[in-house]
């Protein structure tokens, strides 16, 4: 456990001691522990984990404990609490660990799952769950649908204990603030754990039926396959995020003026999308559009992007090609969907005076109209090397002034409502150099002000 923070060591040690104390009754002579059932369930848990350590399978199999949660809940339904505690230990100790310290992580996982299964089994016994399975008699008929009540309560306790222990290790090992450690943990896991509980209940019913333990695999195999499918989905999502992160980093390296700007535009675009009531899948695509809206700057000469003085008309025309460059860069990235159109058209104006195609009104894609507002808002509120950012109310008022000519009024209203509801962190919007927004003049240190109006006024065309 070398390298583990002291608080985390104490936390892990306490969890391990509690797990041992919970399992002690099952290990005492004359306890009548059903070792056959316990051994088979422990073997199933371990079998679900071992493929993750096999080089033949690599990462193409689930590596999280979610793949054997139905088995753990089956143990909570079939075994006394002290025996159920032991089922999780072999699989947790044998499972793959990707990051050091390996020993500490394995001990923690074994103790955490042991305590979680023990609490779930205790809850099931307290609510009379074993009786709803037909008691100890072989072939007894389960008391359905009443058996669902203690099973669902068991799943809830399982989820809460797992979330509580996860939050505790985040505080002690990862030094996450207490107020953030448990945020979203129970809410995001109760649903899946209820599904796992139903699968575990079916396994327990089949286990006690005349068909015996082998029939329980009929439930486990489809459940394991579904976990594999979900694992593949999450890996694909991680690959998508890595692709976008690489593109944004490439832009940041080439043009320091945009550093941090892309992420903030993505965040503001997502705020607008939520206010508009978009579906989750479209919100994610819109966030990607906001993050990647300036990726076309990779095709603009660096000398133009980093020029300190005012741009010549020819240089301005070169910069105005960046939406088309961006569209070409992401054309082959299928998962971006509507985001590609936003990248191409986020500099169009509602009155038709924008670029690259001079689209007007509803001919401008919805995503592009959202990103245009988010882009301008961040450009106005960001502090730059030669001037402070505008206050959020002033920026919103300027957006309202330009609504109908440059910006879609519906998007402006949605952003204003989102800001009233969630606020906007000014500390996150500090940059070291100029960032450009749609229709904003390039006003770098040493250049002359625009011919009309004030610098960074959204109503002006870049």
TrEMBL record:
Its EC number is 3.1.4.-. It holds the Pfam family HD_5. PROSITE patterns: HD, HD_GYP. The keyword Transmembrane applies. Residues 258-380 form the HD domain. One of its GO terms (molecular function) is hydrolase activity. Residues 236-431 form the HD-GYP domain. Keywords: Hydrolase, Membrane, Signal, Transmembrane, Transmembrane helix. The keyword Flavoprotein does not apply. This is HD-GYP domain-containing protein. The chain crosses the membrane at residues 68-95, 107-127, 147-173, 185-207, 213-231. It comes from the Bacteria. It is an enzyme of class 3 (hydrolase). Residues 1-23 form the signal peptide. Residues 430-462 are annotated as: Disordered.
